[in-house]
Design a protein that fits this description.
This protein has 368 residues and is α/β, with parallel strands linked by helices. It has 14 helices and 8 strands. The protein has an 8-stranded parallel β-sheet. Helix 3 links the parallel strand 3 and strand 4. Helix 3 packs parallel to helix 5 and helix 12 crosses helix 14. The structure holds phosphoenolpyruvate and manganese (II) ion. Phosphoenolpyruvate binds next to helix 4.
């Protein structure tokens, strides 16, 4: 644990209300799209800071890379005409210079930049002597040291208004989320830097609007101190991240459903041991479900073998052996033998069911 001497949010944050909220489109696409989105968000009275990406870090070339400098003039219009502070992503010193020139109120460092200490240092050097808040998204990979290092580099440049943003972590393969939440990571960051505010970005964690609510609620339950949620006037037509964006009115309905925990500011996240333990349980349960899926796959393979060799599905000796060895292991680990027996019986029953399905298949063909 170390003391970074970070300025508390209540000394500089922009808005009132029990939920600190940053919203706006993934990308600024046109002056009209940005102004219409920002106007609705401002009129809702719920959004404190307007976000819009001007330079977009796209995975493949050819995708929309952001509108660049002209978008900064549109952001200035949002500030001046709507009276909303604005924020955008910076990835290098040139971006920082331009944002300062156009009076952008808050900068954020994206996940693809936080991974690179050279880039973070370049941004930090460009910020020396400037008083501007900086938000630092977690790196793409779950490396706590990298995230901490980025916070330290920005702090060492003299910036003391810093927020960390949890936006999930990339992983190989397909899953429910676009980026795995790995809640233990923001909790670990908070335990290292207790005075550092941590916000959550459910849009980039989920990648789909249907899951935004549950992730946003969980973030608040864990004591996170604000949210960043993408919103677009016509989300389905968005030039980037269409599936995860919502209209301003859908955003407001989502906010109305959220339960904001009173006292969920500051170090609740750290104090909330229960929440940390629940995050561990979530992870373990997820592993258990993955293992069950893996076990079923193997069982199906056995089913095919039995079918091709004309063997019966249920083999009493094997069943007895499974029960005896696992019960002995359970006893050794201090688990209830009865509980483990019931659990295994259910698993075995499910395997038999799937093998019966395999039996009915003609080799080389599928049932459907
Ligand atoms: C974004 O906020 O639009 C963005 C690109 O985020 P991240 O760096 O979290 O992917
Ligand atoms: Mn986005």
């Amino acid at each position: 644990m170390s003391n970074l001497d970070i300025r508390p949010l209540d000394q500089w944050w922009f808005g009132e209300g029990d939920l600190r909220l940053i919203s706006g489109p993934c990308s600024a696409e046109s002056e009209d799209q940005l102004m219409r989105t920002a106007t609705e968000l401002r009129d809702s009275g719920r959004v404190h800071l307007l976000r819009a990406g001007i330079w977009k870090p796209r995975t493949r070339p050819g995708a929309f890379q952001g509108v660049g400098e002209p978008g900064l003039a549109w952001l200035s219009r949002v500030r001046e005409e709507l009276g909303m502070p604005v924020t955008t992503e910076v990835a290098n010193a040139a971006h920082v210079e331009l944002c300062l020139k156009y009076g952008v109120d808050v900068l954020w460092i994206g996940a693809r930049t936080t991974v690179n200490p050279f880039s973070v240092q370049e941004i930090a050097d460009a910020l020396r002597g400037v008083d501007i808040p900086v938000m630092i998204k977690n790196p793409l990979n779950p490396d706590l040291q990298l995230w901490m290092g980025a916070v330290e580099r920005i702090r060492e440049a003299g910036i003391d208004k810093i927020i960390a943003i949890h936006r999930g972590f990339s992983y190989y393969g397909k899953g429910l989320y676009r980026n795995k939440p790995m809640w233990e990571m923001p909790i670990a960051l908070k335990s290292q830097f207790p005075e550092l505010p941590v916000f959550c970005d459910p849009s980039h964690i989920t990648g789909k609007r249907e899951l935004l609510f549950q992730v946003a609620q969980k973030a608040l339950d864990l004591g996170m101190e604000g949210l960043m949620l993408e919103s677009h006037i016509t989300p389905d037509q968005a030039w980037s991240d269409a599936a995860q964006q919502v209209t301003p009115s859908a955003l407001i309905s989502l906010l109305d459903k959220l339960q904001v925990r009173t006292g969920s500011t500051g170090d609740v996240m750290l104090l909330n041991k229960l929440a940390a333990l629940r995050a561990d349980i979530d992870k373990i349960d997820e592993e258990i479900v993955h293992l069950i899926a893996q076990r079923m796959k193997v069982a199906e393979g056995i089913g095919e073998y039995k079918r091709d060799h004309n063997m019966t599905i249920f083999q009493l000796d094997r069943y007895n052996e499974i029960m005896a060895t696992r019960s002995a292991l359970a006893a050794q680990l201090g688990l209830s033998e009865e509980f483990v027996r019931i659990f295994l019986e259910q698993l075995h029953k499910e395997s038999i069911r799937s093998q019966t399905r395999v039996m009915k298949q003609v080799p080389g063909e599928t049932n459907d």
